[in-house]
């Protein structure tokens, strides 16, 4: 069976936030990220001609690239991006109408929220994941961990302040995926003719995530072994 959108998001573990200044730049960034193994991208509505960019990427890459839309603040915007090829819809803030329209189309809803009240409200409105934004402004990984203490069932995606240096801390705190901006979506690299910097960053992020998961699995297995030995 083919993977679901949620399965792909959590497997890849990254949602690169694409805020390109033009379509050419957007295509170049996506090509460079794909070369590094990252197969997910969020095209924000701030990109000039964002709907056309979504359509073009859908036509060019098909199932090889999981497309999402970002900075979506109205139900009509959500519908337009879904019609253009978005499989998940992201907002920087909480808009119940966007969640409702996204879910009506059987797509994945990722509203933005920051405070505990906003986050749980977004979840209760039907969000599949909640984008904690701007997470760095509230303390980064430690804030995410604090939110999950009373609400361990929430599926959170921190955005803002995620870098190669902080990625593991966010994963340890319980992030289901990481929203990544300029540290991966390096527009200057495209402008300077060095797209390989994006490709290298993509590989580095995937390596960090894979290492974290391997070490976590080993620790869990060790814990289970110790638990079993104690109960014998």
Walk me through the structure.
The model has no long low-confidence stretch (mean pLDDT 95). The protein has ten helices and nine strands. Helix 2 links the parallel strand 1 and strand 2 (40-44). With 232 residues, the chain is an alpha/beta fold. Helices cover 50% and strands 14% of the residues. Helix 2 (23-35) packs across helix 10 (196-230), helix 4 runs parallel beside helix 5 (96-104) and helix 8 runs parallel beside helix 10 (196-230). It has a six-stranded parallel beta sheet with strand order 5-4-3-2-1-9. It has a three-stranded parallel beta sheet with strand order 6-7-8. The protein has a single domain (5-230), classed as Aldolase class I (TIM Barrel), CATH 3.20.20.
Pick out its properties.
TIM Barrel; three-stranded parallel sheet; 232 residues; globular; alpha/beta
Write the layout of secondary structure elements.
Layout: H1 5-12, E1 14-18, H2 23-35, E2 40-44, H3 50-61, E3 66-70, H4 75-84, E4 88-90, H5 96-104, E5 108-110, E6 112-113, H6 116-124, E7 130-132, H7 141-148, E8 156-158, H8 167-173, E9 178-180, H9 187-191, H10 196-230
Parallel strand pairs: 1-2, 1-9, 2-3, 3-4, 4-5, 6-7, 7-8
């Amino acid at each position: 069976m083919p993977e679901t959108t949620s399965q792909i998001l959590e497997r890849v573990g990254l949602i690169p936030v694409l805020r390109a200044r033009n379509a050419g730049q957007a295509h170049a960034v996506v090509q460079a990220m794909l070369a590094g193994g990252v197969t997910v991208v969020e095209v924000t509505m701030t990109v000039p001609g964002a709907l056309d960019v979504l359509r073009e990427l859908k036509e060019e890459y098909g199932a090889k690239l999981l497309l999402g839309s970002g900075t979506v603040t109205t139900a009509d915007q959500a519908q337009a991006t879904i019609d253009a090829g978005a499989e998940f819809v992201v907002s920087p803030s909480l808009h119940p109408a966007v969640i409702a329209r996204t879910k009506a189309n059987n797509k994945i809803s990722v509203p933005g929220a920051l405070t505990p009240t906003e986050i749980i409200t977004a979840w209760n409105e039907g969000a599949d994941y909640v984008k904690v934004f701007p997470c760095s402004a509230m303390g980064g990984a430690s804030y995410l961990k604090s939110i999950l203490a009373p609400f361990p069932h929430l599926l959170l995606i921190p955005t803002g302040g995620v870098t190669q240096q902080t990625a593991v801390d966010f994963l340890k705190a319980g992030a289901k995926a990481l929203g990544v901006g300029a540290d991966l979506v390096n527009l200057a690299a495209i402008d300077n003719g060095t797209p390989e910097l994006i490709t290298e960053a993509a590989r580095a992020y995937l390596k960090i995530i894979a290492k974290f998961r391997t070490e976590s699995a080993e620790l869990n297995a060790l814990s289970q072994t110790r638990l079993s030995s104690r109960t014998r």
